[in-house]
Amino acid sequence: MSSDVRVRKLQGFIKEEVSRMLMHGLKDPRIGFVTVTDVKVTGDLREATIYVSLFGSDQEKKDSLQALKHARGHIRSEIGKVLNIRYTPSIDFEMDTSLDYSMHIDALLKDIKKDQTNDQDK
Fold first, then answer.
1. Backbone angles phi, psi at 39, to 5 degrees
2. pLDDT at position 118, please?
3. What is the DSSP pairing of strand 90-95 with strand 34-41?
4. Higher pLDDT, 86 or 79
5. ∠ at Cα 52 (11, 39), nearest 5°?
6. Taking residues 100-118, what's their average pLDDT?
7. I want to staple 89 with a disulfide (CB 3.0 to 4.6 A). Which of 48, 56, 110, 117 is the partner?
8. Is 55 helix (H, G, I), strand (E, B) or coil?
9. Residue 94's pLDDT band (boundaries 50, 70, 90)?
10. Among candidates 59, 37, 61, 41, which has minimal Cα distance to 49?
C-alpha cells in the first residue's frame, strides 16, 4: 500500500473517531460545540494535527480548545485501542478559522450589496 494512501486513510479514520468521541465520549463541560474539520498526519505517522471549528464567544472557544488539549492523552489512547499500528500518533489540536473567515466575507458582501441597492434607490 502506498504511503500516501495509508496517511490519507489514517487521517480519515482519526477524523471520524475523534468526531465520534466528541459526540459521545468526552464529558468535559468546557467543550462546547466543536466540529472536526480536518486532520493532518505527518508522513512518518508520528504526529497528527486535528483542526477543529469552535462556536461560541471568544472565551468559550478558548476554553473548548484548552479542554481538547487537556484531553489529548485520553483521545490518543482511545484511538490507539482501535488502530492496529505499531505507533499511535501524538495529537495536537488547532483552531480552524476558515468558517469564521467565510462568515466575515459573507457579511462584507451582504453590506456591499445593501449599499449598492441603497445607491440605486436614490
1. -135, 130
2. 73
3. unpaired
4. 79
5. 15
6. 81
7. 48
8. coil
9. very high
10. 41
Query: Sign of the CA dihedral 34, 65, 37, 41?
Result: negative
DSSP-derived pairing of the beta strands 47-54 and 34-41: antiparallel
pTM: predicted TM-score of the whole model, two decimal places? 0.78
Number of helices followed by number of strands (H, E) in the chain? 4, 3
Which contiguous run of DSSP H or E holds residue 26?
none
Residue 108 has phi, psi (to 5 degrees) of -65, -45
Inter-axis angle of helices 72-82 and 3-24, nearest 10: 120
Do the Cβ atoms of 11 and 40 come closer than 8 Å?
A: yes
Domains of the chain (ranges; CATH) run 3-97 (3.30.300.20)
